[in-house]
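Table 4 source record.
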Amino acid sequence: GITIIASGPLTSEPLAETIRQLTGSDALFFYDAVAPIIEVDSIDRSIAYPMNRYQKGEGAYLNCPMTQAEYERFYHALIHAECVEQKEFELTLFEGCLPIEEMARRGEKTLLYGPLKPVGLAKPGEARPYAVCQLRQDDLAGSLYNLVGFQTHLTFSAQKQVIRLIPGLENAVISRYGVMHRNTFVNAPLVLKATYQLKTNPQIFIAGQLSGIEGYVESIGSGLIAGINAARIARGSDPLIFPQASALGSQAHYLASASPRDFQPHNVNFAFFPELEKENDRKIGKKERRSIFARNSLSLLKKMQEEHQFD
């Protein structure tokens, strides 16, 4: 029958096994290992340059090169930065996914053979940098980039301080800070529709943090959409896809369309909304942009509510 699963980040092992069978073994995760995510407009493109390693592909990465002096300054700040205190049950979860500060403590050059490896990232005709921090596009619109290999236990304030030591990221705006903690969630782009239905079984919905979102309000919103659509299916109606230009719809769209290769939970973000059209090529400021998003979102949801008659 019609079922909504919203069991949260500490889902029991028997239920997790059932979800694994429904979605596939590669579509269920048991912890977050999230690298910080940066707003692309805050990256200094006069320093960061697009290139894939060995120039393979179409330059899906942005690269921030470091001199030896810049790397050493970054390294020493990283190993002395403040970390979040871990709970005992979290300590054994990350053996295959070390925090960047733990890798750094193994030796000053360890990161040069890991996430900051410069090999294959020299600009044509230029010498190879001493180290390179790579950022990978995190959303379809290209407005968010994650720091590759930067999963971390650092406090949020420490992350900001350390990240801003990277050339090109001196004014970085962090959309989502890196975290590593116990969490159970599905690889939403692989298994969920924008209606929160399983692709393989549309009578089953997954909502809340289990669906791959972060935040109390976001979890409530996903449950609202799943509940509305479960009721519609029970009455023989089609499920609704909420407009992407609303917070509820942008969140659902992100879950259904993000990259499944490195999917991680995320709070709702204005970067998930479709870009606004410029008026007479006038640049719209952040505050005005967000006000327009809010007005459009409320208008679209009111129209949808009247059309489909739900409270």
